[in-house]
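Quiz preparation item.
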């Protein structure tokens, strides 16, 4: 039986720690819902013509955070709904969170620490994790950021299951959220 699909009146902004699957799942979610997908990091890389790592090295983190905010603002102003994958730091900044609250629905993809560590350990493309011991930095980021990610409209716990099953779970959670919203109104 085909899964019921939600009607999106607003963009869905995927938030969560590095390696939680915002891009991989976001792409597939967008395809299923037949709406455009954007990854904020990739958008910035295209605009700036360099990688996130190069940007941190050349201009510093504050410059990157401003570029992130500008890109988010651009997508929050679009009329059509998008599925938006954000970098792990986007939702942490108050100015971004208030934009998202106003214009979109936030969805936290929550993944167990061991799974995250395993995924991020396979890459060296995340400057924040290259500043020391990955396991320790990831743990610190979890402690600092989880109380903030918890503020998202929707939380979905995922694991190392096939992508399709995880996208099913995201869709079910969006439908449930839409239902609750309608009842509240
Ligand atoms: C960051 C996460 C990265 C990227 C940058 C900073 C963060 O994106 O935006 O390295 O502050 O958590 P992913 O969450 O897609 O890895």
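Solution:
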């Amino acid at each position: 039986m085909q899964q019921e699909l939600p009607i999106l009146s607003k963009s869905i902004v995927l938030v969560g720690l590095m390696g939680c699957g915002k891009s991989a799942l976001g792409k597939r979610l967008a395809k299923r819902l037949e709406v455009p997908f954007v990854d904020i990091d990739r958008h910035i890389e295209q605009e700036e013509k360099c990688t996130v790592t190069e940007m941190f090295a050349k201009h510093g983190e504050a410059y990157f955070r401003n570029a992130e905010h500008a890109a988010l603002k651009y997508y929050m102003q679009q009329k059509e709904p998008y599925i938006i994958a954000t970098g792990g730091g986007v939702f942490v900044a108050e100015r971004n969170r208030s934009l998202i609250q106003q214009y979109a629905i936030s969805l936290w993809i929550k993944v167990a620490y061991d799974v995250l560590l395993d995924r991020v350990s396979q890459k060296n493309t995340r400057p924040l994790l290259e500043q020391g011991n990955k396991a320790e930095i990831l743990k610190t980021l979890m402690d600092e950021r989880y109380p903030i990610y918890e503020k998202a409209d929707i939380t979905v716990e995922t694991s190392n299951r096939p992508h399709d099953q995880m996208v099913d779970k995201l869709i079910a959670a969006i439908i449930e959220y839409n239902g609750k919203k309608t009842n509240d109104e």
